[in-house]
């Protein structure tokens, strides 16, 4: 019984820092998430239309449009890619 208590105490000691770290990052507020969703919808993304066949491409395209609108340069969003697309090189 004593070893069970020790195991539980060690498990608790290991999980507390992880739980507190998850809470300390601040994250986005509900209003920020809603504002981002509105921007994506204005850029052409429709989350509830049931078209899951084009999900990654549709959200990435909308994010790129929003990033272009929000940046002074008008480039693509950081971290965006054309994975799975056909290369223009050599054509």
What is the oligomer described by this structure? single chain
Radius of gyration: 22 Å
Helix content: 55-70%
Distance between the termini: 72 Å
Instruction: List SSEs in N-to-C order.
Output: HHH
What would the average pLDDT be, to the nearest integer? 74
Count the E strands: 0
Strand content: under 5%
Sheet/helix structural class: mainly alpha
Structure overview:
The chain has a domain at 13-69. It has 91 residues and is an all-alpha fold. The chain is elongated. It has three helices and no strands. The model has no long low-confidence stretch (mean pLDDT 74). 57% of the residues lie in helices and 0% in strands. Keywords: Signal. Residues 1-22 form the signal peptide.
What is shown here, in short?
Keywords: Signal. This protein has 91 residues and is mainly alpha-helical.
Protein traits:
mainly alpha, signal, DUF4148
Q: Can you lay out the helices and strands and say which pair or pack?
A:
Elements: H1 2-24, H2 30-42, H3 55-70
């Amino acid at each position: 019984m004593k070893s069970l208590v020790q195991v539980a105490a060690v498990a608790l000691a290991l999980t507390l820092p992880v739980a507190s770290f998850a809470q300390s990052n601040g994250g986005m507020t509900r209003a920020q998430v809603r504002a981002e969703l509105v921007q994506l919808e204005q850029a052409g993304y429709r989350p509830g239309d049931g078209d899951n066949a084009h999900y990654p491409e549709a959200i990435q395209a909308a994010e790129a449009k929003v990033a272009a609108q929000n940046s002074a340069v008008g480039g693509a969003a950081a971290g965006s890619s054309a994975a799975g697309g056909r290369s223009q090189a050599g054509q």
